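debug: dumping io for the single-chain case to check the tokenizer round-trip. Nothing else runs in this session.
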Amino acid sequence: MVGKQIVLFRSTQGHNQSQFAALLGMDRSTLSRYESGKRKLPFYRVEQMAKVLQLPLSHFATPGPEGIVISVKIAAPKPPPTETGEAGT
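debug: decoded output
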């Protein structure tokens, strides 16, 4: 799970949640939800974390049956509105 990796990487570099969240420009509570898996982690945030921690993106990847995968829950884009203005299915 990528959340546990984030905790390991940031703590290894001496950052607590508040410090790391500030470096990322987000609230500590948001970082906490990413680390615990309670909030979906957008890929751009994984890229941002890798950059701040000066780690290759591959550190956030795990081997899978189809090769190396980034193990994050990515939020699906919302469907475009229909002619009635409601979100599609």
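debug: round-trip ok. The two ends are 29 Å apart (CA to CA).
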